[in-house]
Write a structure and sequence with these properties.
This protein is mostly beta strands. It has two domains: 103 residues; 128 residues. 14% of the residues lie in helices and 45% in strands. It is built from three helices and 13 strands, in the order αααβββββββββββββ. The strands form two sheets. Strands 5, 6, 7, 8, 9, 10, 11, 12 and 13 form a nine-stranded antiparallel β-sheet that branches. A hairpin with a 2-residue loop joins strand 5 and strand 6. Helix 2 packs across helix 3. It starts with a helix and ends in a 21-residue tail after the last strand. 20% of the residues are buried.
Length: 279
């Protein structure tokens, strides 16, 4: 009986020692990194420091065997690293690092977030192709005053052979992730070779869009809307359609709709008529 009691006690102690205690700290979903120190390491760190940091933050070079295959090789050579302070969500501080690398044909967008009285967290790293030229970045408050979205112009999505395409993209922080809420063609060019010996010229189709901000109507969920003017040229024929992109809060996306090509603009809010003064 004595030996049985000792065995039961030992088993109970072993189980308690390996059980997950209530106060045990769970693994963090986000990495804690200060944006300034991260940028400095990417610029001037040793090869080992830049290699380890790139692996940790997901700054990976494209796979040379194909764009569809994932790579686990870190990108460690950068032309420049810029820090962009911005507010991407309510009651928070954010910094976006733009790390351009000609060696990796990429522009990396590294997003950091810090709530009040908390540490900096690395949220996400996005890679954009920058083989011939890097895309253009800006910030604008499109949905809610005080909160910015990331606007990406001239993101190259296709560049080879007879086809060239650049996209306009809007990125938004939704909850704790960066989501693409608008992605449309900004410029494209398709060249077709001669169709028959009698036709000496090539057939070329081009498309170019420009985007302007429009103030949204009263009581709209969006602060601004985006007006797109699209010029499509098919050989010798040109058409110019317009569309307006409006924020859809239910789908958390910008949705397009046709727009009057004339001088129509959203009407300003009507003023209330002045009340008549009593005699």
């Amino acid at each position: 009986m004595k030996h049985l009691f000792i065995c039961i006690t030992a088993v109970a102690f072993f189980s308690t020692a390996h059980a997950e205690l209530p106060f045990k700290k769970k693994p963090q979903e986000f990495l804690t990194r200060k944006p300034g120190e991260t940028a400095q390491t990417l610029r001037n760190g040793t090869p080992v420091q830049r290699n380890d940091l790139a692996l940790e933050l997901g700054i990976l070079a494209p796979n040379p065997s194909g764009t569809g295959a994932k790579s686990n090789s870190p990108c460690t050579d950068f032309n420049q690293v810029e820090e962009k302070p911005v507010t991407l969500r309510a009651d928070a501080d954010n910094v976006v690092l733009l790390a351009e690398s000609t060696a990796c044909d990429s522009l990396y967008v590294v997003v950091f977030d810090r709530a009040p009285k908390s540490e900096w967290r690395h949220v996400q790293t996005l890679r954009l192709m920058a083989r011939t030229q890097p895309p253009e970045f800006s910030f604008a408050e499109l949905v809610q005053p005080g909160i910015s979205e990331i606007l990406v112009h001239k993101e190259i999505t296709s560049d080879g052979g007879n086809v060239r395409e650049q996209d306009f993209v809007v990125l938004k922080m939704i909850r704790d992730r960066i989501e693409t809420v608008l992605d449309t063609t900004e410029q494209s060019e398709i060249t077709l070779t001669n169709r028959s010996p009698e036709e000496l010229d090539n057939l070329q189709q081009t498309q170019k869009s420009t985007f302007d901000l429009l103030k949204s109507p009263p009581n709209s969920a969006a602060t601004y809307r985006l007006l797109e003017k699209e010029v499509i040229t098919d050989n010798r024929t040109t058409i110019t359609p317009f569309r307006v992109w409006t924020w859809d809060p239910q789908q958390a996306r910008f949705r397009p709709a046709p727009f009057d090509a004339g001088k129509a603009r959203p009407a300003p809010p009507q003023k209330k008529p002045a009340e008549a003064k009593p005699n």
